Amino acid sequence: MTRKAPRSVSIALVAAVVSVSLSARAQDSATPREAGTPPTETPSTSPDATANASDDKTFSALLDTRLGFGGLDEDFYLSLNIGAAFRWWKLGVGVQAPLRFRVIDRSPKQKEVFRKQDWDEPSDWTRILRYISWGAPGEWIYGRIGVLTGITLGNGTLVDRYYNTIDADHFQTGLSFELNLDGGGTGLFLDNLLDPEMAGVRGYVQPFAFGDFGALAKAFQVGFTLVIDGAAPMQPVLDSTQSRQLDGSSNLKVQTEPLVFVGFDLAWQVQPTDWVVVRPYTDLNVWTQTGGLGYHLGLLATFDIAGAVTLGTRVEYRALSADYSPSWVNSWYEVERLDFLPDPVTGRQLTKARYFRDRHVRGQDEIRHGWHWSLDLTILDAVTISGIFEDYQGEDNANLMLRLALPYIAGVKLSAYYAKRNFEGVENAFDLDRGLLVAEARYKFWGPMAVFARYSREWRIERDRAATNFGEYETIDDWDVGIGAEFTF
Question: Which domain holds residue 422?
């Protein structure tokens, strides 16, 4: 099967983990925003913050507008961003209209003033209704249609913090659903309702929930996960010169195959004191096409210190077969599925599925051992410091994420995010080549009025046939400065 890959994968969207978007804190405190959507300060009664106010039937709303000037690759744009979010009881609705107008058109010439890539596919028009949701994750019933933000199934060993919209030119309206009952429940997601390619579902039971087994026994949980990528890119479609092919809109043509993963997990969540929650767990996952195996043994712990400081940490040991990768569907999956790592022999970029499927062909049959460490610190529900580090045996197996978000202090709000995946050695940890650095600042100078500045990195397919990396992803700059206003009701 041959499909066209997205034109431009915007890691600027992942920048949303450094700013609170108008559209969503219900799914995850680190929420990605779509490119062109103004990040906003969340009001005390956030229209999309339902976790602590699901029984509050009052109405609240947030309106955010921005006018900016910035650069995207070789061109410069004037942007107008209007967004609104509404909340009544458990119902949340977010709408938006991000528009970009080309004011300086440098070579290669595009001719159009209005940036058509933002609105040239049927799914792009669904971005106007950014989301509609009911409830909050963890409640007995929760549902969301629209942008999916930080989707995790179970312990996160197969699906961890997945974002369905990280492509500036390719919006997706997905589905997320949870049902949590006494004795069991389920959670599922679908990446795109209009053109679905990927879905995942996890069901769990608490076998000792009923009967006189005691609180500790009732906290025991057994889960099963199924993840399907029905159109996983395997390799680019090559022409007679063995070059990659792009269509008229610079979409990469790829051959696809379905991937199926299944996982089994055991967990035991206990709360020994009022301020500590501990969750030891173990997972065994299988890539059914290759028999690739991954074993995970970890511990999650959350500490609530005097209601002012929340500290969460996770430590996990992993044993991986050559043809398996932990958290296969992760925050970067929309990039990795198309452009993962180069072939050690030819140097050509491989898709994620092809890279791991062919490891045994390259004589890489070893079992790899590794670790995952993460830390999340929140102070007064305002200051956030986060970090993740992973490393395994072998080359190009280290992953790093650092995040800092500061609230308004003397009218100034700052945030920063850095991520680097698939690198080797400390000396490469902060190399921006194929890495992500995002910084954003906002200053309120009068009432609801503020000025802002933002910088991020974006991935785009090289369209110059004379380039040595034609048809491969490269990183470019994306920045803007401007003025905005924010109103809460």
Answer: 2-488
